[in-house]
Specification:
Helices cover 34% and strands 15% of the residues. By secondary structure, the chain is of the alpha/beta class. The chain has a single domain, classed as Alpha/Beta hydrolase fold, catalytic domain (Rossmann fold, 3-Layer(aba) Sandwich), CATH 3.40.50.1820. It has a 6-stranded parallel β-sheet with strand order 2-1-3-4-5-6.
């Protein structure tokens, strides 16, 4: 597989089979993982074509585990616009002000690109950045979502509207969660180069399961609980 190759089509079949987990995310009972830092603020940013409802299982599981879990406020995420980034910037600053702690930002897919951007823009407010299957490294065409992104946003996927280099590691402790079973994002693109994050964590989830698979959500919380 070359650096511009998205996942093979057969992996996309598994993505379709895991969509029901996404559909019932809001009604599933949360997971409670012992040992988390009590009250640590965490903002969760959903992926493209989704909103906070899609990440509600992860959000409620973070809250049940002792985190101050906060939704992004995004109802339908279509792309990183200045207005959305400004809204998220205010949420980061508010979380830092209200708790007196550095904020952890967890971003799923496109949401992870927001998370890295916010890590660059707010180095004094952001303690950690975690991406879940986010295409931050290598060729931006190494996924099955770039054509839809361009259709929705009116600019090439190679021409970010923001000056920050998303592939460059933010100052905050940065964790890249990736999966060899991802049927949307090439694994090398979500894992990145060693210098682009402080830690790379492999999970077994498909792309659609990143915030909905119980074992993966448990692993995410365990990693965050390690500090």
């Amino acid at each position: 597989m070359t650096d511009s190759s998205p996942p093979p089509p057969e992996k996309g079949v598994w993505e379709l089979l895991t969509l029901p987990k996404l559909a019932i995310s809001a009604v599933r009972p949360p997971i409670c993982v012992e040992g988390a830092v009590q009250g640590e603020p965490v903002i969760v940013i959903p992926g493209m074509m989704s909103g906070d409802t899609a990440t509600s299982f992860l959000l409620r599981s973070l809250a049940a585990s002792g985190f101050d879990a906060r939704p992004s406020g995004l109802i339908f995420n279509t792309g990183a616009t200045p207005r959305r980034v400004d809204m998220l910037s205010r949420a980061v600053e508010r979380g830092n002000d209200e708790t007196g702690q550095g904020v952890t930002i967890v971003g799923w897919s496109l949401g992870g690109l927001y998370a890295r951007l916010l890590g660059h823009r707010h180095p004094d407010c952001v303690a950690r950045v975690m991406t879940l299957g986010s295409p931050f490294s290598g060729d931006p065409h190494a996924n099955h979502a770039w054509r839809l992104y361009e259709l929705l946003n009116g600019h090439p996927v190679t021409a970010s509207p923001f000056p920050e280099d998303i592939a460059a590691k933010p100052r905050a402790h940065t964790i890249a969660v990736w999966s060899a079973n991802d049927g949307v994002i090439a694994e090398y693109s979500a894992r990145g180069q060693p210098h682009e994050s402080d830690r790379q964590v492999q999970v077994e989830a498909t792309h659609m399961e990143m915030a909905t698979s119980a074992p993966t959500v448990r692993r995410i919380i365990e990693v965050l609980g390690e500090g």
